[in-house]
Amino acid sequence: MAKIVRSTYPAAFSIGLLILIYAIIFFLSEQIFNIPISAFSENKSVYLGMFLVSTAVMIMILILWEEFLFPIKLREVNGGMIFHNHRNKLKTQLMIYFFIPVIFVFIYFNYQGQLNLIRFAIVAAICIILPLLEKLASGVKNYNDFLRLTNEEIEYKDNDLEGRYQVKDIQTVTIITHERAVTHQIELLFKDNSKVTIDLHDMELEEYYTAIHSYIYLHYRHMLKEVELED
């Protein structure tokens, strides 16, 4: 059974806040069009344009502000826990993301001569580029990354490295923390004195740091070395 690590906002709060944000964006979106407000009654199609711009901005917000739509859950597997990139979340984000460029292309070709091109280009660039850089590119890059912790094995995969190790072969487990004392890396020292460092910060596992720390403390406590704090 999955355990929720980070839940979404309560439905009533989410709906109310999204309506408020949408109304503000809709009101401000008229600045993209070179049509005076007094002339809107003669150019009613501008309302559709404002609706589409607001929708594109809202999609961007939903991708960046994940707490609206995407709970984070832990999944038990083979007597332990697996922590991995949120694949269903990423697929949903990609699916709704592609509506953003489609919307702006539609607006550009259907409202030529009615647009303030500089403002339109700025808003379009922000909505298209920001989610790609902030969330989607990193998610795709780390799509297959995971960390699996059980009483018998530790297994992981990141962009460049992967490994599967028997707990009985490990001498010490060191949790290396960085900013705000959250788990950042895990260092495994084996009985043959070889070492492996698992870089969690390269694996899109930020939401799991506390849960990973707790699991290691509970299940590998007999091997746990004093936590090291690095700047």
Spatial extent as radius of gyration: 24 Å
H/E topology pattern: EHHEEHHHEEEEEEHE
Number of strands: 10
Helical region count? 6
| Strand order, sheet with most strands | 1-2-3-4-5-6
- Average predicted local confidence, pLDDT: 86
Q: Can you tell me the residue ranges where pLDDT is under 50 for at least 5 consecutive residues? A: none
Number of domains: 2
Distance between the termini: 37 Å
Structural class: alpha+beta
The share of residues in extended strands comes to 25-35%
Share of helical residues: 40-55%
Main sheet record: 6 strands, antiparallel
Question: What is the 3D shape?
Answer: elongated
Could you describe the 3D structure shown?
It contains six helices and ten strands; from the N terminus they run E-H-H-E-E-H-H-H-E-E-E-E-E-E-H-E. It has 231 residues and is α+β, with helices and mostly antiparallel strands. The model has no long low-confidence stretch (mean pLDDT 86). Helix 2 packs antiparallel against helix 4 and helix 3 (87-97) runs antiparallel to helix 5 (117-141). Helices cover 42% and strands 25% of the residues. It has two domains: 8-71 and 85-141, no CATH class; 146-229, Roll (PH-domain like), CATH 2.30.29. The strands form two sheets. It has a six-stranded antiparallel β-sheet with strand order 1-2-3-4-5-6, with helices on one face. It has a four-stranded mixed β-sheet with strand order 9-8-7-10, covered by helices on one side.
